[in-house]
What does this fold into?
Amino acid sequence: LELARVVQRVAQARLRAASKMQVPKEVAQAHPHLLLVLENYERAANAATEGRTQRFLILQQRARDEERTLRGVLKQLGWSLPEA
It folds into this structure.
């Protein structure tokens, strides 16, 4: 439970930072997808802290799906992210 709380705080910080960042025009189309990835991971972490396992799994899958979209958009723009 404590680990889930730490993950949630980190996810919230990343989401706040990404929502305020200056986005280069070259990747502006990808930025909304980045925000959705981060938002879904933050919500998943929150669900984990509340013990809502099913909600956690759904939100984690949404985050992964959105990450695939983000990677696809970046690839179309000529950019890539390293694989985790």
The longest helix spans residues 53-76. Helices lie at 2-20, 31-49, 53-76. The CA atoms of residues 30 and 70 lie 6 Å apart.
